[in-house]
Structure formats: C-alpha cells, structure tokens
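Entry: FYVE, RhoGEF and PH domain containing 5/6
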Amino acid sequence: MESRENCKKVADIFVKKGPFLKMYTAYITDFEETNRVFDDAIKKIPTFQQVVKEFEMSPRCASLGVRHYLLKPIQRIPQYKLLLQDYLKHLSPESEDYENTKIALHIVSEVADHANSSMRQGDQVQKMLEIQKSLEGQFEVIKPGRDLIKKGELMKLSRKEMQPRMFFLFNDVLLYTTPTPTGGYRLNNVLTLSGMKITLPASKEYNTEFNIVTVQRSFTVEASSEKDRDEWVTSLKNTIDDYTQRKNTFETVRAGNQMEQIYESFYDKDFVLGSKAPIWIPDARVTMCMLCTCEFSVAWRRHHCRSCGRVICSTCSDNRAPLEYLRNKPARVCNECFHTLKTDFNDKVETGNVTEGMREDIDGSVLSLSSIKERFQQIRRSARFSTKVKRPKRLIEVHANNLDCSMSGYLKVLKGKKWKKFWFLLKDKVLYKFKASEDVAAKESMAVIGYEVIKVSENFEGVAANLVFQLSHKNQSPFVFQTDNASSTDRWIKAMEEAVQG
C-alpha cells in the first residue's frame, strides 16, 4: 500500500499468495476443538489463566480478548472475498489491476468453498464419531467415502406389535438398530443398498408404512406421519439410485462388456422366491391360514413361510427347502413355495443353469447338486391333522387386500350396543367383511344394490355425526358404520353411493 502511487495494483498480491490461503482450511476445520482445548486449559491450569489475563491487558491486545483474535482467521477469507468483489466493481476493464482482481477473486472464492466443504465434512465426521460411540456391535462407521444421509426412529412391524428401531442411512448401507436403556444402540443388521427395494403397502389404510426389501432381511416399518414416511422413502430411493449408479460405473470400467449381468444384479425389480428375504405378514393382520383358510386359535398356531412371508398353519407348512438368501440353509416353507422351489431347482439342473453362487453353503463352501436336492424335505402328517375348511365360493373369490376394488379399510359396525371392528372391501357392488386386512376368505358378503346410503346428521351412540353413516333397506334393520375420521367417512359414502345404483 506504501507503493500504491507508483504501482496501481493490490490484487497481484492475492494472485501470488493465493495457493497458501488454503492453509486456513485446517485452522477452520479444527476451530471448535481449538476453543474447547483453550477453555479447558483456562479452567484447569491457573498459571495459564493468569498468563492469558496479563496478555489481554497488554496494549497489543487493544482491550480485546484472545478469543476475539482466535476468531479473526475464520472471518478473514470471507472478508477478502467481499473486499475483492467491491474492489472489482470500482475498476474499469482498462485498469491494470482488473485482470488480476478477477483471478484473485476466483482464487479466494475457491478457498472459501474449500473451507466450507471441509467444515461440512468435519461436521459429518463428528456426527459419525458420535454414532460409532453409541453403537453396540462390530461395525466400523467411519470409512473413506462414506457419508451419513439420514437417521431417525421408525416403528418396525414385528409379528405381534410395533417396536421402536433406530435407522442410520449412509450412502452405501442402512444400519438397523435397537435403542438400549443406556442411550446407545444395539446393532441388529447391516443392510447393503445393493438390490434393496422400497415399496409402499397396497392398501391406503396404512399410509404411514413402507416396506424395505433386501437379500438379507425384509420388513415393514411405520413412520410418525405420512410426511415423514414420504421423506424416508425419497431419501432411501435416491440413495439407492446413487449407490447403484456408482457401482454400475465402477463395474463398467472394470468389466466393460458385462453390463447385462450388472443390470440384472442392481436393477432387478421382481421378487424371486428364495433369492431375497420376504416381508413377513404380521400375525395381527391374519386370522386364518392363507392357503387352506382354517382359522387360527390358541391350539392351532400361526407359522410364517420363509420364502414368501405368508402366514400359514402347520399342515400347510410341513416342508423344508434350501433358500438362496440363507445360503441354502433349509427353512420352513409353505406347500406352494415348496413345489415352486423344487420344480425351479430341477429345471435349472436339467438346463445347467445352476451357478456357483446358487450352490454356496453357510460356511462359504460349494455344495454338490445332490446335497442341495437332499435339503428339500416334505413331512407327511396323518390325515387327522388336516383342518381344511369348506367355504362358499363367493367368500373366497376376493382377497381382503385386493387392489382392484372401489374402497377398503377398517370400519366399526354396530352390533347391539357394541361397536366391533372389521375389515371391509367394496368390489363390483358387493361389500365383503373380513376379520383382518390380510385374510384370504371373507366372513360375510352382501350385495349393496338397492340400499340407501344415509349420512348421519346428529351424534350417534356417543360418536360424532361426521364419523357415522348407514346402509338402509326397507326390508331390514340398517347397518351402522363408524370410521376413524371425517375424510374417511366422505370417501366411504361416495363409494357406497356409486355402488348402490343399479
């Protein structure tokens, strides 16, 4: 600045010193830790506290604290950027410092972006360190290239109830953990994003739920709200797509002509029996065997098919079959899956399509075809155990979770003076009543043509008027239904009014 009159330049200094400005990044990144150490030293070391106090009282500090000067380097780079921007506005293109100023502004902007990026990366590392400390289980959270995308609590739908689980979504894996009383998280599973699929339930009744399907484990989770569910679904799908694209690019560079195999590996959208863990249908949503329709009781227990996830009785699941996602470990499967899996395996053997990966054993060794075939086991019980129920055709022609329907969902129906909850489905002008939302046979069915739909105008049996509607016919007592909310009432009334028309 002293030679400003002879040399009308300032920006050339930034051009020369620009490469060294990135050294500030390390200071910026460690600033929080530096302040913590400084504060701890003042609290714990009286001598140091005295030295700092004397230093701050000296003329060179100009009545300012050391913390003020520690902050100066953090502020310096943004200030340089602002100063150069203002300086450039006051220069004409003919000025001898014009080009240098443009170059200097570019350099300082890069340094500022680099510092901001480093700070964000530092925040990421700090968050991941906190996760590592709270995690109970063998998993290295911090890994080169790994970023935390989203974390949060979701309710996992287990066989009998909803249970809280903490999920951590990284750009390569999804951690599935259980909160512990100590405030930490017990690691349940590390789910790779490779081949992961996110789906929504078929019924709109479960508008806060979504399904996570992976090779290792598949299950249903529930978010706190529909908005939270949509945010999780979007984050998961975007992260899966990004991961797939990165892997796809890497494999393309490595293998070149193997794109068809990669496409099948990462873009396979169809569920194949035995290749991926199925989503288990919760016990509470099924009251009967999904094959023979016998009703479950305390003595007649539910079982899950490890291949398709359906709920079946013991008679319909007296089979063991090797499953690929379990590394060919024999597992309980339903009669239908047993037949399908065995037929598919025999077809692959005949055509020579059984790959080495399909023959992998639990310990990583390769099984012989005869060993795999021996793992298909069917137990034949006495006929006295058979409980197959004969039901009218009209009650088994529609599944409770049928997609091709006008309306479906839980409703309470008034029986005497008590409300009883059932799953109702309206299809082809027929109203089907089920005990639960995944039952394969209806309890009753009723053609609604000729009925009158009545919206209640006053509170009914202690229930708000906007939650009640009736189906009335001149030859019998009206059917009274109760919904969970007013919008559901309106949708049911609209669907019923369309159905009752001849």
